[in-house]
Amino acid sequence: MNKYGILGFPLSHSFSQKYFHQKFLKEGIENALFENYEIADIAGVSSLIQDPDLKGFCITIPHKKNILPYLSESTDAVKKMGACNCVNIRNGKLFGYNTDVIGFEKSFIPQLKSHDTKALILGTGGAAAAVQFVLEKLEIDYKFVSRNKTAGNFSYEELDKNILDNYKIIINCSPLGTFPKIDEKPPIPYQFISSAHYLFDLVYNPPLTKFLSLGKEKGARVQNGYEMLKIQAEENWRIWNKT
Q1: Contact 77, 133 (CB under 8 A)
Q2: pLDDT tens digit string along 114-162?
Q3: Which of 3, 64, 161, 216 is catalytic?
Q4: Where are the domains of the chain?
Q5: Where are the alpha helices (DSSP H) in 70-125?
Q6: CA distances from 47 to 52, 72, 92, 240 (A)
Q7: Non-local CB neighbours of 31 within 8 Å, separated by 6+ positions
Q8: Of the candidates 108, 144, 154, which has an alpha carbon nearest to the alpha carbon of residue 123?
Q9: Are β-strands 169-172 and 198-201 bridged in parallel, bridged antiparallel, or unpaired?
Q10: Spatial contact of 223 and 201, defined as CB atoms under 8 Å apart
Q11: Do domains 2-98 and 102-227 have the same CATH topology?
Q12: Which helix (H) or strand (E) holds 135?
């Protein structure tokens, strides 16, 4: 039995396991199993990979960055952004990839407009690194936003009408608003959102987070993370099964 899975903590509402179970049934893929590996301490990966049937796994919060020391090799993208969300196991060695990049890029581009030249990235975790990578590729200027002020970036308290008038793209890379805490939202001044804005939320459950809902009320373009997850899941599968 070929095994695959997702590594993270917690995994109570994992997209991946349900997606791959349905994929295996729909496509008649036999001899394959996808499991949730709910590991709080990344050191647990050492025992996990002792299973000879495990062919690869994807990675979510909070391990996209702390998996790096366990990788034998990684792509240039992983090295540049310092985050990995897909591991292929070959001969007992871990090879790291980042499929957040292709997932975000392909789901993000369709709603882009010519005036979308500056972006705010809400959050600074592993997913934010992939977003940063894509924005640089697309030559879109960006600033990170976090609770604490850092050099060259914004704190949430600094955000005002002037900043939001200049930064038409707002990308939520934080888990705020994820089920079951659906009333949570990034603390931005939503009163300054307009129809010129594009709000992208990496959260997929619920489909319309409070962040997106408040933007939609202002006429903004909105996109959740579901399409991104589907695209990267298929890319993970391709990586795990390439020869």
Answers
A1: yes
A2: 999 999 999 988 889 999 999 999 999 999 999 988 888 999 999 999 9
A3: 64
A4: 2-98, 102-227
A5: 76-81, 100-108
A6: 11, 16, 12, 20
A7: 1, 2
A8: 144
A9: parallel
A10: yes
A11: yes
A12: helix 126-137
Task: Give the pLDDT score at 209.
Answer: 98
Q: Which amino acid is at 236?
A: N
Nearest one of 77, 32, 80 to 56, comparing CA atoms: 32
What's the pLDDT tens digit per position in 87-122?
999 988 999 999 999 999 999 999 999 999 999 999
Side chain identity at residue 115, one-letter code = H
For the record, the structure tokens of 101 come out as 């990049």
Phi, psi of 171 (to 5 degrees): -120, 120
Q: Does residue 54 contact residue 82 with C-beta atoms inside 8 Å?
A: no
DSSP state of 65: T
Output the CATH code of domain 102-227.
3.40.50.720
The answer to whether the CB of 178 falls within 8 A of the CB of 208 is no
Do 207 and 226 touch, CB atoms closer than 8 A? yes
Longest dimension (CA), the chain: 57
Other beta carbons within 10 Å of 158: 11
User: In the CATH hierarchy, which top-level class contains the domain 2-98?
Assistant: alpha beta
Query: Which residue is listed with tokens 């939001």?
Result: 164
* Cut 0.85: pTM above it: yes
CA separation for the pair 72, 74 (Å, rounded): 7
- Check if 64 is active-site: yes
E strands of the chain, at which residues? 2-8, 32-38, 54-59, 73-74, 86-90, 93-97, 118-122, 141-146, 154-155, 169-172, 198-201, 221-223
Using alpha carbons only, what angle is made at residue 13 by residues 54 and 105, rounded to the nearest 5 degrees? 80
